[in-house]
Amino acid sequence: MEYIRTLLTNLRVRDVIDIGIVAFAYYKLYMIIRETRAKQLLKGIMFIFIISALASTLKLFTISWIITNTLQVGFIALVIVFQPELRKALEYIGRTTLFSFNVFEGDEKRNERNIKEIMTAVHALANQRIGALIIFEQKTGLSDIIETGVAMDSHISNGLLINIFIPNTPLHDGAVIIKNYKIKAAGCFLPLAESQHLSKDIGTRHRAAIGVTERSDSIALIVSEETGYISYAHEGRLYRNIQSEELTELLTSIYKKDEKQTIFERWWHRDGKKQG
């Protein structure tokens, strides 16, 4: 108690700030890895450090020698094993800047036209039960995914979107990538979701939508060919069977920064819809 009292007496404002920053950094790190395999690996690393401390205290020299020599090459192994998580963390830091801006800010009429064109296309595809997957690039670049498809660099129009996803056409199975105000590519291949807790009735198209949003801050819009339901994925979570007004809010949140939190906050608190 005397030690704690002395510590609190000598505590300065800069120490509080220092502790607060470190605590916030650890919290953010935990939020990034909490639903990935890195969480289990982190538990294993902590266990090794505990064993190492006990071996050193109890003078178990053989165990200490093994652990010490293992940890010397452990850092390189960690970089290899945690590569996806490290990339995700660095991308998160890159997105969370004081001077960030919305890539979709621009002319009001152009925003409204794009929203109308996308809504028309999505509703037409849903009514005909034609599967579709549209990815909206945000701050994290998707150049590596764009390169897997056919480059287009076309203006957004409902006719073009509908034709891309018509069954038995060359590009209908892949994803469309929309960057800023243009369709950058179609027929793109996406990484599948890593989560093991997804519902068994979620198909490949929905898993791909979750997968790309696990690795970036993009927003994925999906039309189910089995049910005609419209869904979307964001931050590795799937929000299923949204209605027309919710689709309008989603597209508005993409193209109009001030209203971005509306639909995400509403769906976060809804029961029975969120998956993943």
From TrEMBL:
NCBIfam families: diadenylate cyclase CdaA
SUPFAM superfamilies, A to Z: YojJ-like
Entry superkingdom: Bacteria
InterPro entries: C-di-AMP_synthase, CdaA, CdaA_N, DisA, DNA_integrity_DisA_N_sf, DNA_integrity_scan_DisA_N
Keyword NADP: no
Biological processes, Gene Ontology terms: cAMP biosynthetic process
UniProt name for this protein: Diadenylate cyclase
Record-annotated membrane-spanning stretches: 16-33, 40-57
Gene: dacA
HAMAP family listed in its UniProt record: DacA
Nucleotide-binding keyword on record: yes
GO molecular function: adenylate cyclase activity; ATP binding; diadenylate cyclase activity
Keywords on record: ATP-binding, Cell membrane, Membrane, Nucleotide-binding, Nucleotidyltransferase, Transferase, Transmembrane, Transmembrane helix
Organism of derivation: Dethiosulfatibacter aminovorans DSM 17477
Domain spans labelled DAC: 83-244
EC number: 2.7.7.85
